[in-house]
């Protein structure tokens, strides 16, 4: 058996007096622990090599997933989790499996449960209303089963129904059906079964055994991966029918969900987090160096990022080749002028229109938002830009600098270019090894300043934007000059093509690659993804069809 390190429900009836007013229920202290399956070697004949499948686990909902899950319960959109403590990131992604419930977050969830229960009392009145001729217990049970399945993303068990019914009856003593329903909703929203989603398989599994996830776990895994929210009625019906064990059915459901607005937003978030652009709305620049910078300018960069990625997702099925090599973008008047007085077409109500980019710009890599993100407060940064290409786009590891080496950028100088200053700064023998790989990538984007403006001169000196794509063995395999040429090189780079599926696994599965993922990654890197413009949606389909998607190894401890 696998023990779950969080209680089944956080709220339980404990001698509630008849006249007790609705109050907050404190979350189980176990929820402050990280979500994980209990471990500890007990031995047993069913032990399987660790490479057979990724470990069983439970995963905490992110803020966005919490909002979508609560919205599914109430039947209308809510945004109560926006004020929760922000997720940290691992490997660049906020969707990782190590999200915890701190004391602060537990209090915030407790408060949110009260707020959501109050909203649910009015929004769900038709579900708990009890017509004459029907017992209130029957009505309460029907309500519990309906909203409980929405909250837990699976049918409510008999034990859970009994507990929730007791809570419902305690709430309506001296009150009404509405107060009973409100108390049940509060318990559901503060329950571990709402806050966590499990990947544990059937309760009959033996320690160390590789198990198939239950149909409802598969439905949740698929839905959260594609839409960022809980399964809809169609997917739950497929789980109930037992058809999700078929790769063809999982592909069918995935392609159906990919047509939804939620799926497009989920894919947008993948591109934003993969490229490290989630902090763009907080980018700040020195106005003395970059007089064009303002909060409004920063907002324009965010709008371009979102509109361009949305077009790649909607019109090109998330094609990475199109992302890198598109000769167009979507900008407002501010950026159209900044990019050289470009003419916009199809301007929408928000002032966003399509532009044909000048030859020095290509795809997302040369957007002002990307160049600004990978730059300093008052200058460009060849090191940040080179590391960005190596780690985010090519999936290489760049070791941290030696402890005795200063990481402070070289001082600004009007007598030299940024390239000249950084070349001297990184010539230290202790740094040279890494910078032989980093610098050719970063120096090749020096035709853009720290705010993403194209330039041919800096401080009166010609800008040298020559660079090269450096192979893992240290050789320069693809010389280039300028960010647009780099983007063109990367769009056909095999290393990048292999990196994207790995980054998507990290984002979608919430973990780094596992030994058992070799076959999965091979499938994602070939097939329709590789032959059809590196479409992320095709890599996603390969993922949901794989055994790695539905199998987990139970702990041996």
UniProtKB/TrEMBL annotation:
Residues 59-118 form the DUF1587 domain. Residues 213-340 form the DUF1592 domain. Residues 139-199 form the DUF1595 domain. It comes from the Bacteria. Residues 479-549 form the DUF1585 domain. Residues 361-458 form the DUF1588 domain. InterPro entries: DUF1585, DUF1587, DUF1588, DUF1592, DUF1595. This is DUF1592 domain-containing protein. It comes from Corallococcus sicarius.
